[in-house]
């Protein structure tokens, strides 16, 4: 696996019509666990409310960043129920009291955490229960930050991406990577569906959209449209 990378971005939001000062989005991406899943910690610099996306593992490290920035985690969002993305969700819920949001079509995968643990050599995380299913066009708000859920099945039956229109940023889970796409050979995977999700939904986003994939370096929609061999 490539070396760890860690980015911190302060992204000015689009002009607001109420003349308030620019609200900044705190966004930390840290690779966690043996498969180095990119976990996003996203906070509103004003209200200090935050969401954590894909807390697969290393909850102590995630909480350290949350506390460093004085954030209060209000939502735990999981892009899909693979263990490297969801494995730490219950532990993070215990630490923060925040609900776990995941698309219900990944229920079958949630129920086979022990099997998934044996695939990747992780310790089984125990039973994981979701608090709320999220689906296409649902809007997730923390503070003034506003994300839209895009239902993008294919890597799993319940895979979602999270789009922040004001910041032009996509948290892509394992649907799209820099130079590649998610594997579809695991239970619930479908090559046809992931291609439909990519062509019909993900590539409909503007070229300048920054993409944070589930693993590896960030990219943009334009870069992938032009160079990703799977999207030719
Ligand atoms: Zn996955």
Unreliable runs: 1-20
**Helix-strand topology string:** EEEEHEHHEHHEEEEEEHEEH
Which structural class matches the secondary elements? alpha+beta
**CATH topology descriptor:** Metallo-beta-lactamase, Chain A
Model description:
22% of the residues lie in helices and 29% in strands. Strand 13 (210-213) and strand 14 form a beta hairpin. A six-stranded mixed β-sheet has the order 1-2-3-4-5-6, covered by helices on one side. Strands 7-8-9-10-13-14 form a six-stranded mixed β-sheet. It has a two-stranded antiparallel sheet with strand order 11-12. Residues 1-20 have low confidence and may be disordered. The longest helix has 10 residues, at 59-68. The chain is α+β, with helices and mostly antiparallel strands and 232 residues long. It has helices at residues 59-68, 83-86, 89-96, 107-110, 113-120, 191-200, 221-227; strands at 7-12, 24-32, 37-44, 49-53, 72-77, 100-101, 139-142, 145-151, 160-164, 169-173, 176-177, 180-181, 210-213, 219-220. It contains seven helices and 14 strands. The protein has one domain: 4-Layer Sandwich (Metallo-beta-lactamase, Chain A). Bound molecules: zinc ion. Zinc ion binds next to loops.
SSE layout and pairing:
Elements: E1 7-12, E2 24-32, E3 37-44, E4 49-53, H1 59-68, E5 72-77, H2 83-86, H3 89-96, E6 100-101, H4 107-110, H5 113-120, E7 139-142, E8 145-151, E9 160-164, E10 169-173, E11 176-177, E12 180-181, H6 191-200, E13 210-213, E14 219-220, H7 221-227
Parallel strand pairs: 4-5, 5-6, 10-13
Antiparallel strand pairs: 1-2, 2-3, 3-4, 7-8, 8-9, 9-10, 11-12, 13-14
The structure holds zinc ion (ZN).
The site of zinc ion has 4 residues, from loops.
């Amino acid at each position: 696996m490539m070396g760890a990378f860690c980015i911190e971005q302060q992204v000015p939001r689009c002009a607001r019509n109420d003349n308030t000062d620019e609200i900044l989005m705190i966004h930390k991406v840290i690779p966690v666990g043996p498969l180095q899943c990119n976990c996003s910690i996203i906070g509103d610099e004003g209200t200090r409310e935050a969401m954590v996306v894909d807390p697969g593992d290393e909850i102590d490290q995630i909480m350290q960043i949350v506390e460093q920035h004085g954030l209060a985690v209000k939502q735990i969002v999981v892009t899909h129920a693979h263990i490297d993305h969801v494995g730490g969700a219950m532990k993070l819920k215990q630490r923060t009291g925040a609900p776990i949001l995941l698309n219900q079509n990944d229920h079958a995968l949630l129920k086979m955490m022990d099997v998934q643990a044996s695939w990747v050599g992780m310790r089984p995380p125990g039973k994981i229960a979701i608090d709320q299913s999220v689906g296409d066009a649902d809007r997730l708000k923390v503070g003034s930050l506003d994300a839209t859920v895009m239902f993008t099945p294919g890597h799993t039956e319940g895979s979602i991406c999270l789009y922040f229109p004001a910041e032009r940023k996509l948290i892509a889970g394992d649907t799209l990577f820099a130079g590649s796409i998610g594997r579809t050979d695991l239970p619930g995977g479908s090559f046809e569906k992931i291609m439909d999700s990519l062509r019909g939904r993900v590539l409909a986003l503007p070229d300048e959209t920054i993409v944070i994939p589930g693993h590896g370096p960030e990219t943009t929609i334009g870069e992938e449209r032009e160079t990703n061999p799977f999207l030719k």
